[in-house]
Amino acid sequence: MTERALSFDAVADQYDEARPGYPPALFDAIEELTGRPLKGSRVVDVGAGTGIATRLLRARGAHVTAVEPGPLMAARLRRAAPGVPLVRGLGDALPLADGSADLITYAQSWHWTDPARSVPEALRVLRPGGALALWWNISDGEVPWIAAQDERVRRWAGDVHHGAHSAAGRAGNLRAAMDRTERRIPWTRRVTLDTHLANLGSHSVFRTRGEQAAAGFFADERAELLAVFPDGTVEEAYAVELTITVRA
C-alpha cells in the first residue's frame, strides 16, 4: 500500500461526507451480469474505505464483510455501519477463507493493488461461479465545466492521472486470460459548492501535497465555479465504469 493510497486516512470524515455514492442502476447491473441477486449473497468489499459502497450493498440485502487497511477510514466505517463485519487487510493478501465469497467488490480501490497478487487472492476467496466486481466513478469529461476543471487540476498538479476525474490503469491490469464484461452507467448528482470542493480535495493528489499547498488552488477554483454555478449548487456528472469477472 503506497503513501498515496493511505493519504485518504487523514480525511476520513471529509471523504465520507463529500464523495459521491453510486446509483441504483449500478447494483442492478451487478445482479444482471453475475446472474445472482445481491440479497443473501456473501459479499466482500475490499478497500472499503468509510463504507460508502458497503452500506449500499447491505441495503440491497447482501451479507457484507468490509476489508480496509486504513485505521481512520476503518473507524469511520465502524461508526457509519456498526453491524458490518470489518477486517483490517489488503487486497493483495485477503485475510479470508478459500471459497468464502459469492462476490468480491472493489469500489474505487482496485488500482491500489498489485494484480499479480490481488487476482489470485480474489480467485482463492471466491467460490466457483462467484464474481469479482470492480468499479469507478469517473467524472464526465464531455461536460465543458468538468473538462475545464480537469485541465486546471492537471496544470496545478503536473499529474496526468491525478485521480480526481480519472482512474488510470483501471481494470486493464486484470490478466488477459480472465473473461470480463464491462458496463458504463451514467448518472448525476446535485451538491453544494462546498461539498463539491470537499470531494475534489479528498483526492490523493491534493492530500499528498498538503492543505497549505492546495489552499490557493481551491480559492481560485471556488471563483471559477461560482461563475458557472452562481447559485452555489453544482451538478456533477459521472459515469460508473463497471467490470465483472466470473470465476470458472
Order of helix and strand elements from N to C terminus: HHHEHEHEEHEHEHHHE
Count of DSSP-assigned helices: 10
CATH superfamily, by name, is Vaccinia Virus protein VP39
Radius of gyration, in Å, reads: 18 Å
The overall number of domains is 1
Helix content: 25-40%
Q: Give the CATH class.
A: Alpha Beta
Which residue ranges are poorly predicted, with pLDDT under 50 across at least 5 consecutive positions?
Answer: none
Distance between the termini: 29 Å
List the helices and strands and how they pair.
Layout: H1 3-6, H2 12-18, H3 24-34, E1 42-46, H4 52-59, E2 63-67, H5 71-80, E3 86-87, E4 101-107, H6 115-125, E5 126-139, H7 144-157, E6 181-192, H8 193-201, H9 204-207, H10 211-228, E7 233-246
Parallel strand pairs: 1-2, 1-4, 2-3, 4-5
Antiparallel strand pairs: 5-7, 6-7
